Amino acid sequence: DTGVSQNPRHKITKRGQNVTFRCDPISEHNRLYWYRQTLGQGPEFLTYFQNEAQLEKSRLLSDRFSAERPKGSFSTLEIQRTEQGDSAMYLCASSLGLAGSPGELFFGEGSRLTVL
Amino acid sequence: GENVEQHPSTLSVQEGDSAVIKCTYSDSASNYFPWYKQELGKRPQLIIDIRSNVGEKKDQRIAVTLNKTAKHFSLHITETQPEDSAVYFCAASLNSNSGYALNFGKGTSLLVTP
Question: How far apart are CA A32 and CA A107, in angstroms?
Fold first, then answer.
């Protein structure tokens, strides 16, 4: 499968613990995005990478959230001191973005987080 | 920032009928408007998109129209089939600083009954 890959697919944790999700985008894609989706809602933009540079963060991304894309390939999203309100599906998407033009976003299957 | 409103939230049609979903957006600078289909427990998948220099685009049973003046766009599905049942999301692109990240509507749950 050469699509966007995310793991783990499911994570159950206790409040206050740290969790980390990994995303492997489509190999030639330079843009990578993290979204959060809760039941009955559309995906909400969290952050965006152009290659290894994190260029934009939503105000939804509190200080407890940090994302990296160290070599411009895979990305990690870490949530520290998890809260019950963090329970959601975390979706990663990637695209091949040309200058000045949006490209099609390809989504991964997501990582579902449940905070007890 | 960009705000995307989507209506209706649920839509039930009989097989063979047409379905129309409407969205409005707030940022006149948005220039890319995709539609995604998400089946239960699966990832969102692009079904059709339109860019701001085009008013209408069609792909077999699916069409999208865009009215930039009114800042609204619509998805039209003709001759609906049970396998069209899913949640459909419209989206509008944010600015280039965010890599044209998408701002999504809340979704329309479409049910096509045989």
Answer: 10
Give the Cα separation of B32 and B103 in Å (integer): 11
Within 8 A by CB and 6+ apart from A78, the residues are A18, A19, A20, A21, A65, A66, A67
B75 sits in which H/E element? strand B72-77
Q: From chain A, pick out residues whose CB is under 8 angstroms from the CB of B43.
A: 4, 91, 107-110
Q: Give the separation between CA A85 and CA A63, rounded to whole angstroms.
A: 14
Cα separation, B89 vs B5, whole angstroms: 10
Round to whole Å and give the CA distance between A95 and A90.
Answer: 17
Contact A104 B46 (CB under 8 A): yes
Q: Which residue has the tokens 């408007």?
A: B33
pLDDT in tens, A89-116: 999 999 987 777 778 899 999 999 999 9
**pLDDT category of residue A1 using cuts at 50, 70 and 90:** low
Mutation target among B43, B49, B104 for the A interface, most CBs of A within 10 A: B43
Contacts of B89 in chain A (CB under 8 A): 42-43
* List of chain A residues whose C-beta atoms are within 8 Å of the C-beta of residue B93: 102
* Residue ranges for chain B with pLDDT beneath 50: none
